[in-house]
Amino acid sequence: MYRVTLIQGDGIGPEVTEAARSILDATGVDLKWEVVSAGETAWQECGDPLPGAVLDSIRETGVALKGPTTTPVGSGFRSVNVAIRQALDLYACIRPIRQLAGVCTRYEKVDLVIFRENTEDLYAGVEHLVGDGAAEAIKITTEKACRRIVRSAFEYAVRYGRRKVTAVHKANILKLTDGMFLRVARAVAAGYPEIEFEDLIVDNACMQLVQRPQEYDILVMNNLYGDIISDLGAGLVGGLGVVPGANIGDETAVFEPAHGSAPQIAGKGTANPVAMVLSGAMLLDYLGEKEAARMVLEAVEAVLGGGVLTPDLGGEATTREMTEAIIRGINRPPLK
Ligand code: NAD
Q1: Is 199 one of the annotated active-site residues of the chain?
Q2: Is 14 part of a structural domain of the chain?
């Protein structure tokens, strides 16, 4: 039995986490869910968007499945996501950007993995007013954080048989911060001669990814570029509804899709559950339940390939219809 913390989140969060929970349960892996509340929902319930019980639960279970949480724009409480990642030192954000059967896009054979540094950079939250009419935010970069995110990318490349790591940066302008990231990346790369290494300036990386995404494999970068390029990557493979994610530290891991709480479609029953479900498959893989993870992945691809698509993918299926179809796929006995 595995204890798993479940954060339902805001907006479409409860709908897609419920879908993921029922699909993971259908694999037969014995998961004991511990439901806690964070985000706008918790803010309204108890005046604290990240109650201590949330972090306590994740520290105890070691693993969480998290729905998206809303962050007020321009004012209000700070991001719960950033706070969780920093509090638990979940330094590696991993987002596989992969073409899925049945999802129509302008591209073919896109199969990238983004490694985003998750604890510092402009997300460190050091921001202040400088007199009237001026404000500054501080971009924090440490060798330790650069080294561990680049090393995670190379270790993943070795473990999953990937061929190339590309470091994305702006070291031509940000010579000290991104310059440090690039220097450390080159030093780490030297320890993995079997994996190809290259670097790209972030603006060029955006253009190259739109023109020739197939030429890239693993991309490693700091927090801000990783946030932006994740959504660019999602756009290559059918949108945010199909991109899962993991936030991994040395002790704990939180699995959540790249997408947000999508308030425009909350409560309509049309949210695409795939990103959340594939985040759940990554959780199963992390727990060592590789066979169950594979079953989920195959069932998702079979359902999409069979044309059961939510509106964001050009179809008319509801969240529930897609969830039920995936569960039927998991329960179907394998072909002899
Ligand atoms: P968003 O990801 O919520 O939505 C962007 C677009 O993608 C919208 O058109 C939305 O309808 C669509 N979309 C996203 N997920 C979908 C899904 N599963 N199925 C179908 N369509 C989907 O991004 P946003 O609008 O910039 O942010 C909304 C809120 O979410 C903000 O408060 C933001 O701070 C928060 N957010 C949270 C997380 C997180 O919790 N990890 C991540 C990103 C944004």
Answers
A1: no
A2: yes
